[in-house]
Write a structure and sequence with these properties.
about 120 residues; alpha+beta; Alpha-Beta Plaits; four-stranded antiparallel sheet; 4 strands
Length: about 120
């Protein structure tokens, strides 16, 4: 089994519950093919550099999975048929799933959390 990093972009019109449902359904497709979801992350709303399907932003989700290479093309094909997924990107990792990065501390020179100088 190989390790893959998969990023999804969903329409920004989805409410939180609908986004969670679609993101979980996308992960369920991986387990149907015998893969394992090692870690998932909801990345929130982000703006696009260029419009995708006449939309300026989307909701991002990312999963790290272990899956046989023979199933990757079929999985991407299933995602492309889903109208609630605007874009999917699959990247093969050379090693194992990277560890969760600790939050970066705010330096005194950067100001407070709200952008006001201290």
């Amino acid at each position: 089994m190989n390790t893959y990093d998969i990023m999804f972009i969903f329409p920004s019109t989805l409410v939180d519950e609908a986004f969670d449902k679609q993101f979980e359904a996308a992960q369920a497709e991986i387990t149907k093919l015998g893969g394992t979801v090692v870690r998932s992350e909801r990345m929130g709303r982000r703006s696009f550099a260029r419009p995708i399907n006449k939309r300026g932003d989307g909701l991002y989700g990312r999963v790290w999975v272990k899956l046989d290479a023979v199933h990757v093309d079929g999985l991407v094909g299933r995602y492309n048929l889903n109208e609630e997924i605007l874009r999917v990107q699959v990247r093969k990792l050379d090693g194992d799933v990277p560890p969760v990065a600790p939050p970066r501390p705010v330096m005194a020179s950067e100001g407070s959390h709200y952008g006001e100088p201290q």
